[in-house]
Amino acid sequence: MVAPLRVLIIEDNADDAELVLRRLARGGLDVTSERVEDAVGLTDALGTCEWDVVLADYSLPGFNGLDALRTLNERCLDVPFILVSGVIDVPTALEAMKAGARDFVPKNDMQRLVSVIEREVAEAGQRRDRRAAETERDRALEALQAANEQLADFARLTDVPLHGKTLAQILDSLLARLVRTVGTDGAAILLLSDDGQLVTRVAVGPSVGLLSPIQLGQGFSGTIAAKDHPLFVADASTDERVPRGIRDSGIRSMLGVPMHYSGKVVGVLHMDWCRVVEPPAWQVPLLEIAADRCAVAIENARIYEHEHTVSETLQRALLPELVAVPGLEIGQFYGSATVDTLVGGDFFDVFEIAPGCTAFSIGDVSGKGLGAASVTALAKNVLRALAIEGHPADVVTARCNEVIRRFTADETFITAFYGTFDAARCDLEYCNAGHPAPVIVGPAGPRLLRTGGPILGALEGAEYRAGRARIEPGESIVLYTDGLTEARDPEGEFYGEQRLMSFIAEIADEAPQDMATSLFEEVWEFSDGRLRDDVAVLVLRPRP
User: Fold this and answer.
1) Residues 209 and 257 reside in one and the same domain
2) Under 8 Å between Cβ of 252 and 235
3) Residue after which a domain boundary falls, among 251, 269, 301
4) 109 and 9, same structural domain?
5) Whole-prediction pTM value?
6) C-alpha distances in angstroms, 226 versus 39, 192, 229, 235, 259?
7) Contacts of 281 (CB under 8 A, 6+ apart)
8) Total structural domains in the chain?
9) What does the pLDDT look like over 260-284, one tens digit per residue?
10) pLDDT tens, 282-341?
11) Residue 54 gets which letter from DSSP?
């Protein structure tokens, strides 16, 4: 049954309104109507009913058809507005049409009125349908965009930087991303221990109450790990697989997926909600992929943490507390990078090779981590062995170059400085293999020690020259690695050699250990505490 057409008539003459209704009835329209004759009546009528069409006289006491049309437009009502009036001039009719009137029918000739109403009501219905379709399309597009964003969030779920983070920090970061991406109230990562039990490694929200260790095959998480299959519990309060402690904690829905590494179950990714939910069907497969990626990230973090520990231990062994050497005051400082915390390949060494004669070296191996630390050990020990044999500085450096070329990877390079100091003659013999030039500082001003050859490991059969310098009592040799001169301030400017020379001149009167410490503190302040590379400093001063 078709509902009557709702017609609002704006007309101050009741007889004219009756003539309009009769015309509609003769045209076969079933209508329900209301007549108003002023602005107040129009406002009230618009607030009490949704009208299908508005028929308006133009000339009304203190009110006209254009005023009525503006009232409809202000309310953003898409209701066909048709002028049914006496004779009006063409400009007025055009103004009304431009303002939104759908048509004009003279009172003295209303034969078109029914067809005009039918046409405009049909077109209004089409416009409503089109708007509804557009609204639905926009809603679908928004849902699709939200799904795409969630897919992107899943893809980024395990994009957690590993360098400089402990395993605990990695787990915290992964879990925080998971909760944010899936929209859970709580979550936990349980990993298999060496004895085959699930142990909660990190948890947030209600999942903090998860009991562990959990035997395989027991409870919610144990079942997931044993059967190697996801498990969803819509209402934990009535599921016997869920431990009573969890059921009493307020958790309602639970979802868990196994975590795999190298084809084996290594843990369970557990999520929970404090309300009954039903995850979308597409979400569980994505969570399985995310769980496996989490397992890879965790395993990589474990490997990194182990390698970092080994490298750090090896580096500490390569930087022992320097023993006293007759005839020399020694200062040293080693500061690790704060931006990239992989262990670097910086080293230094000072040792006596004959009474009154001291050998010393400083170097920086390319790369970081365990590989760099192992090459550092090789370079330092080779330099020490060749020095003890009593070879000149250029020979020591050349032979060390051949060892590095022969026993390390092709892309391994080392900048190094090696020297020997004869205290009785105040004589320094040295060879610089591509290392930042050490500085002799004293009353005569700074001098740079550059003589030598290319970096170690770069060229087979490379030639090196030995340099000589006289170091008087009261003068100091300052050796350092490039982490010092290449430190950057917050704007990206390098500390640089010239700034270093000026600062060394300022602190030349300090004790060697104080000089080494001051140099590190200087670049620490310059870089605002963000060192991109390790910094090694060695200061030697002949005793009077």
Assistant:
1) yes
2) yes
3) 301
4) yes
5) 0.51
6) 76, 11, 8, 22, 12
7) none
8) 3
9) 988 899 999 888 888 888 877 777 8
10) 778 878 887 887 788 777 777 766 665 655 555 555 565 666 788 889 999 888 765 454
11) E
Domain boundary among 128, 158, 190: 128
Residue 439's pLDDT band (boundaries 50, 70, 90)? very high
Average model confidence (pLDDT) across the chain:
84
Question: Is 195 strand, coil or helix?
Answer: coil
Q: Which of 105, 259, 130 is nearest to 192 (CA)?
A: 259
**Is 309 a domain residue?**
no
* Rounded to 5°, angle at Cα 318 from 312 and 320: 105
Please report whether residue 330 resides in a domain. Answer: yes
Residue 414: domain span: 319-542
**Residue scoring higher pLDDT (145 or 71):** 71
Distance of CA 268 to CAs 220, 256, 543, Å? 10, 7, 65
Token pair for residue 381? 């020990």
Give the C-alpha separation, 365 to 456, whole Å: 9
Same domain (yes/no): 117, 181? no
Longest dimension (CA), the chain: 132
What SS3 class is residue 114? Answer: helix
Name the more confident of 302 and 464.
464
Whichever domain contains 450, its CATH number is: 3.60.40.10
Number of H helices, E strands in the chain: 14, 23
Q: Which amino acid is at 21?
A: L
Query: pLDDT higher for 408 or 479?
Result: 479
Cis bond before residue 230 (omega within 30° of 0): no
Give which of 173, 168, 225, 176 is closest to 201, Cα–Cα.
168
